[in-house]
Design goal:
By secondary structure, the chain is of the alpha+beta class. The chain contains four helices and ten strands. A hairpin with a 6-residue loop joins strand 3 and strand 4.
């Protein structure tokens, strides 16, 4: 059974707000999550309230700080519940659980390298980019990376490039558009099968 890792106790308030925004963005219109529980709008509202309260506490007094903590408790509870929902949905399809969790903008709980997702997508280092990482395929292999806006036909997949390491960054993508990504291992002249695609909204 795959477990999500939210690390809420290690996040600052601004980071929790950012994490909530990324997760809502990645789950909006995501075909894996048709009925999020709690609702995405409730998470967004709680995130906005925590953000406003945090900024007010930076220039206010003890009452403002107390109010901020109350708002953050609500946000933490909603994010925890949303993580549990993602975990539940993912484990309904064990073979694709890693990709489903990744598509929500959430990482898996680590139990060593064995639990590194086969393929994981995250925000890139520049605007309109994505950072891809896959589990190492061993020594002396290369990786062929592809992306698509419509993953349900081989003709729609675009070759993004190859690398000799198990990570790759693609830039020049369209902002606020959902893409699917996949990778195949190449050893010599032999190419393996592509991974199950992961989906990510470019921001």
């Amino acid at each position: 059974m795959k477990k999500v890792s939210l690390k809420l106790n290690r996040r600052s308030v601004p980071n929790k707000v950012e994490f909530a925004g990324i997760t809502v963005l990645q789950m909006t219109g995501n075909p894996y999550f048709t009925t999020p529980n709690p609702t995405l709008i409730s998470v967004t509202n709680a995130s906005t309230a925590a953000d406003v309260a945090y900024k007010k506490s930076q220039v206010g007094g003890p009452k403002d700080t107390e109010d901020m903590h109350a708002k953050v408790i609500v946000l933490d509870a909603l994010l925890t519940a949303l993580g549990n929902y993602v975990e539940f949905i993912a484990n309904q399809t064990p073979a694709n659980a890693e990709a489903i969790i990744s598509s929500a903008g959430i990482q898996m709980k680590s139990r060593g390298s064995i639990n590194i997702p086969i393929l994981f997508a995250d925000k890139g280092t520049t605007p309109a980019s994505v950072k891809l990482r896959r589990k190492s395929g061993g020594q002396r292999v290369a990786y062929k990376w592809q992306y698509s806006k419509d993953p349900f036909g081989d003709a729609t997949w675009v070759n993004a490039g190859e690398s000799t390491i198990a990570s790759f960054e693609i830039d020049g993508l369209e902002l606020m558009k959902r893409y699917w990504f996949r990778v195949a291992i190449v050893k010599g002249t032999s190419q393996g099968e592509f991974t199950d695609p992961v989906t990510f909204v470019i921001s």
